[in-house]
Amino acid sequence: MSDDSSKEDVSIVICGEAGQGIQTVESILVQAIKMGGYHVFSSKEYMSRVRGGENSTEIRISSQRLNSYVERIDILLALSDGAIDHLNQRITSETLILGDEKNLKSVTEYDTITIPLFKSAEELGGPIFSNVIVAGVISRVLNISSEIFNEIITRMFSRKGEKIVEKDLEAGKKGHEIGEQLVKSGKIKIQLTKDPQIKYELLLSGTEAVGLGCLAGGCNFMSSYPMTPSTPLQMFMAQNGVEFDLIFEQAEDEIAALNMSIGAFYAGARSMIATSGSGFALMEEAVGLSGMIETPVVIYVGQRPGPAVGLPTRTSQEDLNLTLYSGPGEFARIIFAPGNFEDAFKLSQIAFNLADKYQIPVFILSDQYFAECYYNIPSLDLSDLKIENHIVKTDENYKRYQLTPDGVSPRGIPGFGVGVVVVDSDEHDEEGHITEDLDLRAKMVEKRFTKKMEKIREEVIPPELVGNEDYEILVLGWGSTYGTIKEVVNELDSDKIAFLHFKQVYPLSSDTGKYLKKALKTIIFENNINSQFGNLIKLELGFDIDETVLKYDGMPFSVEEVTNNLKKFLEGL
Fold this sequence. Notes:
The chain is an alpha/beta fold. It has 4 domains: 9-200, Pyruvate-ferredoxin oxidoreductase, PFOR, domain III (Pyruvate-ferredoxin Oxidoreductase, domain 3); 204-377, Thiamin diphosphate (ThDP)-binding fold, Pyr/PP domains (Rossmann fold), CATH 3.40.50; 391-459, no CATH class; 464-571, Rossmann fold. The protein contains 20 helices and 20 strands. The protein has helices at 22-35, 83-86, 101-104, 117-124, 130-141, 146-157, 162-185, 206-216, 231-239, 254-266, 277-281, 284-293, 320-324, 341-358, 368-372, 438-456, 482-492, 512-518, 532-541, 559-571; strands spanning 9-18, 39-45, 52-62, 75-78, 96-99, 111-114, 202-205, 221-224, 247-250, 271-276, 297-303, 334-336, 361-367, 374-377, 464-467, 473-478, 497-502, 504-506, 521-526, 547-550.
């Protein structure tokens, strides 16, 4: 890899054992790259252990905006003996491998460059400094100024004290010196166009985009039980609780968490929980409670492979059915699945308004890949944000479950007005008292499901079409597959192909059938084994998708996988 001037983007992967500080390297570099005037995207894969194993982080640097994962590795920083074997299927003859001599001494089949990584770290005080040295090497290779790098180091480590900051600045300087030698030797040459305006853009993770949307939606109470990959959202909300007047409660278990949040909405708060599939499975009874007592709640589900605990730190799209059919009985619900940060912010904000308006559970489906990736965006649109509060002041004739034409009863809360707000998890009459009246039972079921769904379907967020409107081949995807499929369809640059992305997966937009019928052939990409969304389309519309591409090994779709599958599909037509 002596000359990368022809590349539009460069893929750098750092791989080592848990505990070696790879996440620190990522944190430093994504900020430095953005501040240096490049577009950046990063994603990680890691084992569910505190020490040992092999973890890796991919960082893509580009002169063009991007937000998708590639298998290609242009430069590999190998920080452990097992790094090469761990990434062997992704390493090619075009990959340049950097690492300490002790990690690369047995590597003969690939192009390698040894750097004095661990010796330099020991001279500074110990192996803990190796991660900052690595970040310094890459920063120099990317022609990022030492001023930008030092500013980031100072900001990140200032809480650890002046002496630690000084040592880390020395480590960064040493890394820059090593990088300078690599550049001068001609062994690495990267030339990407910089844009000074990028430094002013936002650098977010998927978790932060969702969290900001929840705060913009007026969320002021959150109760949850830690579970990867939803824990980062819990931490984000808790850390910002004081500034945004939010109460965060770490519940004793998942069952208590959802019941607390439902209780908070009943009392007048705007509340949510965050969990993953196996944690959400424990909450299903409480989902039914929300449906029966018509008390809103927002539920964030960070998907990971199951069943049970499955692969705790990997990604999937396996919980659509779980959220769609959760809770006993039949009642209305809404399920969002954002595919980019702008949608994550907007949909999370809207989720609270719709939960409040229709008195239902609203789901935000994310996954490990989306939650933990980072990239830069110009800004977040705040122009049309508004908190819609649908609470009414009760009078002496107040009926909590009053039968109305649209199925939505006026929602009062205790203490706001003179009426009594009665709720009951058994079937109940209009006032909220338990009943065995079967005619009234039927009316209440229609109220909670049929009538509400009729109104909800009127404001479904339509899917986004990428590509030519006069397409012949329609590619379908939902949630986190957005960036990868979009990049491939744009790269193919064919008038015959378009991509339809669903950011709301239930209920389906009324436009869905129109898009599908227009296509001569359809193909869908999903990270599950049963094509859960494809089956939902068939159930709702009776439409059979021609080809399904399913991946369920715990890794997201790569640009290369989508490209190869689309090309095969086109060749077979």
